[in-house]
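Hi C.,

You asked whether I'd gotten around to modeling the 442-residue construct. I have! Everything is below, sequence then structure, no commentary in between.
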Amino acid sequence: MKKSLLCILITASAVMSFAFSPKPRRGQTHNLIDDPREMAIRFADDEMTRFPELWQYDWGSKPFFGYTQGVGGTAYLYMYAETGDKRYFDYAEQWCDNLIEDDGTIKLRAMETYNLDLIRGGLVVCQVYRDIKANPDLVGGKEAAKAKLTKYKLAMEKQLIKQLKNQPRTADGGYWHKLIYQHQMWLDGIYMASPFMAAYGATFNHPEWQAEALQQVITCWRHTYDPRTGLLHHAWDEAAAQRWSDPEGHSPNFWGRSVGWYLMAMVDILDYIPEGFQSKLNLGHKDTIQISGRDTLIRYINTLVEALPQYQRGGLWYQVLDQPDRPGNWPEASVTTQFLYAIAKAVNKGYIPAEYKELCKTVYDGLQQTRFAHRDEDINCPMLIVDDQGRLTLSQCCTVGGLGGNPYRDGSFEYYIHEKIRHDYGKATGPFFMGCYEMSKF
């Protein structure tokens, strides 16, 4: 995208933000937080106050190796790496320690479902392993560290890598999202599994798993990318047999959060793919080619980020990404914060031009200043709520989105816009404070 077009879109976004910003409602303060680092730390700490243990994150009702807790654990380990505050490490490590037995068994985890969502927590386990190995004093010294390193490595090998070795695939090597979703690749699944595979491969010198992470990202792009919009379809059905599928196997819409998952996955995977890394790509029918996956992912990131400003309104992105002006559509927190994090990190890593810093600033301002008519309540609601005690809450989070199942989710515009909304859902909050911290590096 030419710089002039980006500037025009950012200016238009700022105008829309002003249009969406009436006075605050009684009972809510709305003091802007100018410093993104302060925002990141305050919000991360407020989430820990809401959810004293990581299994409670995202309103969890019992200890579980869930994918949203995996998102939260990743976010807190990120905050530990950036700030050195051990509270953040402990929050994630205690979740791993409580759920993983000494023999590596992960409690309450059903491997036989071949559910990629249940791989996501593996990235937390892998990063905790790396942190402990680098600093055994984090868990009380060398003896305690040795025991924890052993069980965490066993959990990754016996539970997560074992599942992935047997995960059902499409003809060209793409993982099915779950066993019950046969022949289907979902964008969500890329974030759930591929960063873990890349991290595991880099940590234990198994380059085949870094190559597998790249295989999944590239295969999914080949089947879901839409050149007309510059976006990616939520899913692809190899058999083109689902009611939601078109003749090429595409789902009918561009769900915001699924594209957010995919963009974050690409940016995070690159942390574990060194310069010059070469691998084979399965094209199906026993055809393979040699690729530089790192270069491919950076090209994909640029292509996708280039398309995003045209769909932004008031600094925010919407539930159905390509139709922000269609009646019934609404600004959604998780896609907005996921894009904030991924774009800010991509700028800081040098994957995309520095001019995208300005786009991130419109997002940061939009999250604080934008107000809208809440879909489910007769109120005029801000996206970021600051209460009278200064505690932060992120509103307008879609709870879940999917395809198929029972009752059947048809991937229509009407389906997506009628999904449930709630405050402080972990799919949005972790990316939010990571995105703010990345912005503080500008």
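If it helps when you're writing up: The chain has two domains: 3-62+185-439, 63-166.

Thanks,
B.
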